[in-house]
Amino acid sequence: MGTLTTxxxxxxxxxxxxxRHYLEVCESSGRNYNPFVYEVLQLLEKEHRKTNKGFxxxxxxxxxxxxxxxxxxxxxxxxxxxxxxxxxxxxDVTGLDVRYNLLTDDGMNHVAELLEEVRSLTYxxxxxxxxxxxxxxVIAKALHRNRTLKHLRLTGNKIGNKGGMFFATMLxxxxxLEKLDLGDCDLGMQSLIAIATVLIKNQSIKGxxxxxxxxxxxxxxxxxxxxxxxxxxxxxxELHVCKHDMKDFGMQQLCEALYLNTALRYLDVSCNRITxxxxxxxxxxxKRNDVLEVIDLSSNSIEDEGSMYLTExxxxxxxxxxxxxxxxxxxxxxxxxxxxxxxxTNTTLTNIYIWGNKLDSETCVAFSNLITSGRLKKExxxxxxYEVDGCVYLAELSHGIxxxxxxxxxxxxxxxxxxxxxxxxxQSAKNL
Length: 432
Hints:
Helices cover 41% and strands 11% of the residues. By secondary structure, the chain is α/β, with parallel strands linked by helices.
């Protein structure tokens, strides 16, 4: 065993005292301690002792309410207050993950306190709690003054259009936040337009998630404004506009904007209404664009004809794209084999995901050959070949561009490039 550095000794002390300090804070406040919180802090301490390694300056305390390995008593606002009072003195804690708990707008006053007093915090995950527009206002106002938080996830909190407007205002003032996740937050058209407009001048945001807004019109105004933003913004490298009811015209606008953009590396347009016609514009873009590295087209309908536009660009022109998801796009063997053929001449595309399409025998053989030849690594795709009675078939693997966006597995690897390839290739901010 090597000698521990001063920093590692300090971190070791941190983990030895955190569980005890939590009990002391609860006792001094006259509150009952939460067994789940105490258990997590103890497990964190045991993990540290088991590995006997320093965590340097990046410690994330994960109190996820959907943990199935230990008994879970989800955090209430009172529990959250005790947790924050516990970690305040420890500068080693740089991340806090309290996803899937019972935090409400009242608890966001403690978040404001956390953002104001814990200057080491760079990552905060509040995914799927019970935060509304009032709580969003408190968080956004705290971020007017905060200069250390880099990554905030509010996924699944119903902050609505009003809450989205508070964050649009915040983005005009805050100059340190690098990634903001407002996916599944019921944003409205007004807040989408406001955020897109603010991003024209914001020079700090590198990644933003605006998935699944509540749109009451068939017009693609949000896509229009985001396209205008992309023509000017030079810092945004990751954009998620999943479930925007985007159609071919909206995709055309994005493609035309990206001719002028030299920064965006990750484009997520999954779960929209994009068809084969829009692939003409994307194919032409890929012939000239040398920046995009990840494109997620999952759950659209590009079909075989749309596939041909893409495969032509990939086979003969594009030298930047590293990962492409065409999962569930109504593509048959003709289109899928065209993708496999394009990978024989393309040397930069390393990750491709095809499950959910019509995998005929020709497709199975083509992708089996890609994998067995070493051109396509098994961890970089979502299919694995197997043989029965001399016939080749493909089985599904749990790999993808962002498999663990909403959940993490109970056993095995929690984070890894095979399941979250998009975030591994384009790292706009730490932590998922």
